[in-house]
């Protein structure tokens, strides 16, 4: 029996003026970049290989993220193939003073593990780590 590889990563960001549009809300592209970074970290920790993004799917923006808000990104490896991992990422805001939190954005990313030659590499199967 082996220790299960970590399936989750959490990152924190803050929305500065350079991250926001003329309405004072987070650029969608910046949100996607942060989400992709979180997916990358979760997949890398799970696979213990270099990983690349193969696809982003079904990214839903529910609530605007405002300048000055704290942002927590929670990335979880939710499905594993031979060399691919599906990572679900949630973006939550938190008001630093009130402590209120809201789920703002959710998306799914497909990450591929690569070997030293840049070819797909096998990742641990969930059955082998239990």
TrEMBL record:
Pfam families xref list: 4HBT
Stretches assigned to the HotDog ACOT-type domain: 5-117
Superkingdom: Bacteria
Enzyme Commission (EC) number: 3.1.2.20
Family matches, as SUPFAM superfamilies: Thioesterase/thiol ester dehydrase-isomerase
Entry keyword annotation includes Cytoplasm: no
GO MF terms held by the record: fatty acyl-CoA hydrolase activity
Entry keyword set: Hydrolase
PROSITE patterns: HOTDOG_ACOT
Presence of the UniProt keyword Hydrolase in the record: yes
Gene3D superfamilies: Hotdog Thioesterase
Assigned protein family: Belongs to the acyl coenzyme A hydrolase family.
Protein's name according to its UniProt entry: Acyl-CoA thioesterase
Record organism: Lysobacter yangpyeongensis
Taxonomy of the source species: Bacteria, Pseudomonadati, Pseudomonadota, Gammaproteobacteria, Lysobacterales
């Amino acid at each position: 029996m082996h220790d299960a590889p970590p399936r989750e990563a959490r990152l924190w960001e803050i929305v500065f003026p350079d991250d926001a549009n003329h309405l004072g809300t987070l650029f969608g592209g910046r949100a996607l970049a942060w989400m992709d970074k979180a997916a990358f970290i979760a997949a890398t920790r799970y696979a213990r290989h270099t990983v690349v993004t193969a696809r982003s799917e079904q990214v839903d923006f529910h609530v605007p993220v405002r300048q000055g808000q704290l942002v927590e990104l929670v990335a979880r490896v939710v499905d594993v193939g031979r060399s691919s991992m599906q990572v679900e990422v949630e973006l939550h805001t938190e008001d630093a003073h009130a402590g209120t939190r809201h789920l703002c954005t959710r998306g799914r990313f497909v990450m591929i593990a690569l070997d030293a030659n840049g070819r797909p590499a096998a990742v641990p199967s969930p059955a082998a780590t239990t």
